[in-house]
Structures are given as structure tokens and as C-alpha cells.
Amino acid sequence: PPPPPPAQMADPASRYAHAGVSLEDLRPPSSNSRLILPLDTSNRWFKRGVPGLSQDVVNAIPLPLKEKGVTQQQWAHHCRSLQGVLASAPASSSMVAAIVCGWCLVLPVVLAARAERSFQDRIRQWAQEFNSSVLRAKGLFVATQSASNAYGEEGESDPRHSWVAVALTPSDAASLAEEPHLWALEGDGLVPDLSCECCFRDNVVFF
User: Fold this and answer.
1) How far apart are CA 64 and CA 142, in angstroms?
2) Does the pLDDT of residue 116 top 60, yes or no?
3) Could you give the CA distance from residue 140 to residue 132 in angstroms, rounded to a whole number?
4) 8-45 pLDDT, tens digit each
5) What does 114-156 look like in DSSP terms, one character per residue?
6) Position 181 pLDDT exceeds 50
7) Are 86 and 127 in contact (CB under 8 A)?
8) Which terminal residue of the chain, N or C, has fewer Cβ atoms less than 10 Å from its own Cβ?
9) Is 197 strand, coil or helix?
10) What are phi and psi of 49, to 5 degrees?
């Protein structure tokens, strides 16, 4: 049999199996009015691999977007721009939270917070550019969103997952523009994530 894939290429779902929380619990499904594209953010701690949309998605524009008039060239350009932003990410948001909410020295706190804020701003700018240059004229809208299991049982792991959401109708575009970027799993559904709001209230992606 072929050798198993390296750890950094493993199915992201396997990272959450131990917590009893599947990606389907954390990520809403695609629908006729909204396309949901997973972001693989694995192994950011050690900078192994490049987080972002899968290469298959980058190389072949999703059919709903093609039908709306988005070209493969436009799609690939903006996907690779996002990949470049994600590849320059600082230490994970959870690590920044530990620093900001912990007892570390003031200077590392300031530097870490600035790096995270710059990263979040670049992702926000990516979405704004994609929307203004391509999507809005076609009645579409893109945003990054994330979910965590922050309200799980005591002692449970806190898995997180991020995705790119593309609204496919003008009405859903208006809805997506008003939705929070950060969500949390509570019971059987997702609710706006208000945990550690002092640290992440302006974030547009959380991983």
C-alpha cells in the first residue's frame, strides 16, 4: 500500500475527531444562495504548508460563480491573493489570545497584537477588493467566516474552522454583508461568538 500522507497534508477533519465535533457541525453547508468553501488552516504554528483554499478549487472555478459571469482568470487571481495573505499570517489567533489575556511582557503583547491586526486588515482588504472589482456588479458578495466550539462541555477541546462564503444572490449578498465573521457552536447551531470579544471583536477570520 502507498505510504500515508505527511501530517501537514492530512484531512483537516481528522484534527477535530478527538473532540467529537465534525467539520459539518462547525461549517454551514453550501446552498443555492450561498457557496461555502473551506479554508485549510492546518499547521500554522510551525509554518508547514500553505493555508488557504484547496488547489483544486483554485484551479477550477466553482460552477455557480462561472454561471454568474466570474471568469477563471479573475477567480484564480483572487484565490492566489488570499493564499498569499494567509501564508504571511502571524502566530495563531489562539496564541495571541493567550498572550493578550495572560501575563507576558508588554512588548511581546504589543507586537503580537499589531501583527494580528495587520493580518486581519489584509484579509479584510482582500475581500473588499474582490467585491469591488468583480463580485458586486454581478450581485455577489464574498466574506471570510470562522466557527469554534467555544461553548462546549468543560474540558472539551476547542476546534475551529474557517471558510470563504460567497453569496450568490443580491438578497443573500445583503445578508452576508451584515453577518458576523466569527461564530461559535452552541447546541445544534451556530451563534455569534462573543468570547474574548476584547481581543477579537474586529477579526474577520479566526484560526
Assistant:
1) 13
2) yes
3) 10
4) 333 444 434 445 566 566 788 899 999 999 987 654 44
5) HHHHHHHHHHHHHHHHHIIIIIGGGT-EEEEEEEE-TT--TT-
6) yes
7) no
8) N
9) helix
10) 80, 175
Of 73, 71, 8, 53, the residue nearest 205 (C-alpha): 53
Nearest to 83 by CA among 118, 128, 107, 51: 51
Percent of the chain with pLDDT over 90: 34
**Degrees, nearest 5: CA angle 24-27-29:** 75
Percent of the chain topping pLDDT 70: 59
How far are the Cα atoms of 80, 174, 186 from residue 133, in angstroms, in the given order?
15, 17, 36
Identify residue 173 by its one-letter amino acid code: A
Write out pLDDT tens, residues 138-162.
Answer: 999 999 998 877 545 544 455 678 8
> How many angstroms separate the CA atoms of 7 and 92, rounded?
18
pTM of the model: 0.74
